[in-house]
Task: inverse folding
């Protein structure tokens, strides 16, 4: 036996977790990335001949509940037709008991990598608004993402903003499935489509807290499924806003962010969810107002701040008027001499 | 007592049931005891040798003597019986024992050299020396004691995996699947990265066959490595912990 290099050892250590896809319709291509809850691989769907991304969760699923939930949610999510939503195609269990789900493979940059090249704050905020748009669309169909973070946002080759990894999504309304023509919930006995039962089961058997520390709301951290609603995603988006604005030490080009923008971040990430924005649309509205140089609901300005904002917003007009008045004064002054 | 056979790489030495070297070295059955020591030495002699070479900056001949001496002392003074799995991991215990042994030897420099009827283990030091050359490690770059811990752990993993790869090679041969091992070797052990598609072309196989054979080889490798690991752990809890740390994941 020859000498095992450090590189070979690293590969062999990873080999222990490489998914065995032999019983599936997918051929493994290569490892893409590792997240807090599992690893992502690139694979080829033999049936449809397309490249897909496969996320393998670290947790096992001894009673099949997690797989069932993922499959059910994949079916519902597949109906979400929005350019910013990358749905789950399929879900299953590996021979070693780990659960995987399959989604579209997106070529592009992750938000945390992409943002480094965007120095202009308004541009970053417009990007954020497009994330809000996709999440708000999902919320309007009763679906929560629950794991919004920079590494789950991709900027595609054509500049499209894509919200990835809906595998941990939670369906808030059982009727969502029916609304999409889903037949699962109509059969008796009805399986738990979402909510407490399923969530508790996932926690019990998988031992998982859904979400990522640093972006996860307090109610998610406490593992309190009934308390998780769209305001939990608002919390994560608030953290994401902080990240794209440069207000987090980990942000490329971190800086001090303007007070009113900071106030928006703070309001979105308040521990008490009743104090947060009631919806993603409200959060996006405040960010849009900030971008337009208008007052925001999260921040009460004093007179000087209001005046400065007014000046910044109408700078050209104010300067033109000032110049006109100055010229007029000069003209009157010299006219009288 | 003298050994004439190389002790490393005895891949097929595992009984089918759960079995730990810590218990087996205390056995009254000499066959079982010998087998346990073989497994223990196979996993640890190279890490100990490289550790002594680097940490104590010993030349090869002195490090060889110290490594031999350490394992002899381990047997003669029955140091393994003092190991408490509740307090530390076996490799930490062995590293500390090695530290203590080498320091003691340095203190009593010039003590009678081992020889004559002393136990002599047949260790392939030239291979270990070759590995050290291949690694081109500068001892000065390992600045803190923690770094030496990491170094010892890394070498222990290298040793464990080397044995498991050898087990896999033998297993593939016995199952008439040399191609699976060849694929495994090209994909995991070669220096350059290679894709499944390139492997399929190189071995004139369909990419599905490459996927299947590699998945099989990977599964067997993991099983064999875990079998060796299990033997080196005292309790099931320790095994689960070590397995997680070695392969990651939640299983």
Result:
């Amino acid at each position: 036996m020859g000498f095992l290099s450090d590189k070979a050892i690293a590969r062999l250590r990873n080999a222990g977790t490489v998914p065995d896809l032999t019983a599936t319709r997918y051929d493994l291509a290569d490892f893409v990335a590792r997240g807090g809850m599992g690893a992502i691989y690139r694979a080829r769907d033999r049936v449809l001949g397309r490249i897909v991304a496969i996320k393998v969760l670290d947790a096992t699923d001894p009673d099949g509940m997690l797989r069932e939930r993922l499959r059910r949610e994949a079916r519902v999510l597949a109906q979400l037709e929005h350019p910013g939503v990358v749905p789950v195609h399929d879900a299953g269990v590996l021979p070693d008991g780990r659960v995987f789900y399959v989604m579209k493979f997106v070529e592009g940059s992750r938000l945390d990598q992409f943002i480094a090249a965007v120095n202009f704050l308004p541009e970053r905020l417009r990007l954020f608004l497009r994330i809000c748009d996709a999440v708000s669309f999902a919320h309007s169909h009763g679906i929560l993402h629950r794991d919004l973070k920079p590494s789950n946002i991709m900027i595609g080759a054509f500049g499209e903003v894509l919200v990835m990894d809906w595998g941990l999504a939670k369906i808030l309304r059982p009727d969502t499935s029916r609304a999409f023509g889903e037949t699962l919930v109509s059969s008796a006995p009805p399986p738990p489509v979402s909510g407490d039962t399923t969530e508790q089961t996932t926690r019990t058997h998988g031992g998982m807290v859904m979400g990522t520390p640093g972006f996860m709301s307090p109610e998610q951290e406490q593992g309190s499924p009934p308390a998780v609603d769209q305001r939990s995603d608002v919390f994560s988006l608030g953290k994401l806003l902080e990240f794209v604005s440069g207000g987090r030490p980990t942000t490329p080009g971190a800086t001090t962010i303007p007070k009113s923008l900071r106030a928006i971040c703070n309001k979105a990430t308040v521990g008490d969810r009743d104090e947060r924005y009631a919806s993603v649309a409200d959060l996006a509205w405040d960010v849009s107002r900030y971008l337009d140089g208008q007052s925001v609901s999260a921040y009460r300005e004093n007179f000087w701040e209001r005046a400065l904002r007014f000046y910044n917003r109408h700078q050209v007009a104010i300067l033109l008027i000032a110049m006109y008045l100055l010229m007029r004064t000069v003209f009157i002054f010299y006219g009288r001499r | 007592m003298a050994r004439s056979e190389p002790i490393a790489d005895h891949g097929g030495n595992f009984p089918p049931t759960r079995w730990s070297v810590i218990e087996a070295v205390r056995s009254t059955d000499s066959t079982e005891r010998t087998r346990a020591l073989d497994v223990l030495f196979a996993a640890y002699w190279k890490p100990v040798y490289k550790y002594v070479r680097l940490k104590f900056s010993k030349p090869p001949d002195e490090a060889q003597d110290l490594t031999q001496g350490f394992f002899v002392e381990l047997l003669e003074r029955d140091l393994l019986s003092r190991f408490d799995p509740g307090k530390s991991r076996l490799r930490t215990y062995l590293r500390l024992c090695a530290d203590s042994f080498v320091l003691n030897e340095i203190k009593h420099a010039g003590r009678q050299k081992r020889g004559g009827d002393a136990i002599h283990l047949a260790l392939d030091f030239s291979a270990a020396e070759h590995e050290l050359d291949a690694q081109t490690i500068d001892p000065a770059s390992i600045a803190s004691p923690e770094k030496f811990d990491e170094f010892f752990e890394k070498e222990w993993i290298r040793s464990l995996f080397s044995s498991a790869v050898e087990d896999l090679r033998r297993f593939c041969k016995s199952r008439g699947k040399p191609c699976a091992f060849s694929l495994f070797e090209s994909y995991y052990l070669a220096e350059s990265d290679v894709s499944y598609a390139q492997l399929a072309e190189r071995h004139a196989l369909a990419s599905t066959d490459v996927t299947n054979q590699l998945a099989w080889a990977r599964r067997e490798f993991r099983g064999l490595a875990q079998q060796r690991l299990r033997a080196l752990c005292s309790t099931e809890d320790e095994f689960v912990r070590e397995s997680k740390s070695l392969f990651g994941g939640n299983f």
Q: What stands out?
A: The interface with chain A takes residues 9, 130-131, 134-135, 154, 157-158, 161-162, 165-166, 169, 187-191, 195-196, 207-208, 211-212, 215-216, 218-219, 221-222, 225, 246-251 of chain B (CB under 8 Å). DSSP finds ten helices and no strands in chain B. The two ends of chain B are 42 Å apart (CA to CA). Residues 21-247 of chain B form one domain.
